[in-house]
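Reagents: none. Just compute today. Protein-arginine kinase.
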Amino acid sequence: MSLEKFINHAVSDWMKGEGPDSDIVISSRIRLARNENAIPFPLVATEEQLEQVIADVSKVVQNVQQDQSDYSMGSLELLRMDQLKGLEKRVLVEKHLISPHLAEESSPGAVVLSENESISIMLNEEDHIRIQCLFPGFQLERAWEQANSIDDWFEIHLDVAFDEKRGYLTSCPTNVGTGLRASVMMHLPALVMTQQINRMLPAINQLGLVVRGIYGEGSDALGNIFQISNQITLGRSEREIIEDLGNVAKQLIEQERQARHSLLESSRLRLEDRIYRSYGILSNARTIESTEATQRLSDVRLGIDMGLIKGTSGTILNELIVLTQPGFLQQYAGEMLSAEQRDERRAKLIRERLRLDEDKTNEGGGVEK
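Predicted 3D structure written out:
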C-alpha cells in the first residue's frame, strides 16, 4: 500500500485538523462514564456479567442503527478485544480510540466505533460504558452535543446507575456526579519556548483543571502538546464544566498567539533557524527516535502555522504524531520491528510524507521555503 493510501485509510477525522482554532487546538474530547444499575462494576463483575454488558450495548447499537432519523451518527461497529491482535489494539490506543487499560485487560471488553471514528464507546474498561466523542479543533460544544445524544439513547434502553444526590455512579469516586471528562489537546510551542507555560500550569491546576501529555494520565507533553481537562465532576453541571474548560482554553489560545508574535518580533532569526533545521533533519534523516521526531514535527508545525514554511500541510503534526508510533509503524511495515528498525522506518515515513506535499506543490507551480 502506498503511503498516501495508508494515510487516507488510517487517519481519523480528529487528526485532519479541520476545525476552529486548529492552528493551536488539535482536538476536543468529551467522555462520559456510565454503568448498568444491576451489574457490579467491571473490577468485581464476573465474566458472565461483563458479557451481559456487551450484549446489552450491542442491542442498543442495533436499535440506533435501525433508526438514524433521530441519531445521525453513521454506521457503528462493535469490536471485541479478544478478537483483535495485540498490534491492532495498540493502533487503537495510538489513535486515542481506546485506553491502554482496555487494550491490556484480559476480561471481556469491546469498543463501538463510528465510521469516521469521532465516536468511540469503550465497554468494560474502568466502567461498563465510556462514551467518547472526539472532534478536530476547538469544538467542545459540538463534542458535548454528540455525547449527550448518545447518552440519551443509552438511558432510554438501559437502566443506568444513578443516585438523586450523588448523580451518576462510577467505579472511581472522582468520576461520580456528571461522569464527565472534557478535554482539549493543544499545541503550545511558543509558550514553552518563552517559558511562560511554567507559570501558567500551576494557575490552571488551581482552577480545578489538570494538564497532562498527549496520551493522558502519566504521559509526557511530547512535541509541546498538552491535554487539559477537568478534575471535578461532582457538584457541577455539565455546562459549567465545559464552560470553565472552554474559557481557560480560549485564554491559552490568545496567550499562545501573542507568544508566537513576540518570538517573531524579538527572535525571528533564531526561530527561523530552529524551524528550518528541524525541517531539514526530518527531510533527510535516515534514522530518528520518537522523542526527537515529535519535537522536530512540533517545530515544523509551528513554522507552517506562522507562515514560515509554505506548501506543507498543517495537519502533518496531527498525522505523524500518531502514524510514527510503534503500532502504526509496524502496521504499515506489515511486520514486527525492533526499536532500531522502527527508528529507521519512522525516518523513512516522515521523509515520504514531506515529499508528498512537495510533489503536490511542484505540480502547482512550486513554492519556495
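Residues 365-369 have pLDDT under 50 and may be disordered.
Action item: order primers for follow-up constructs.
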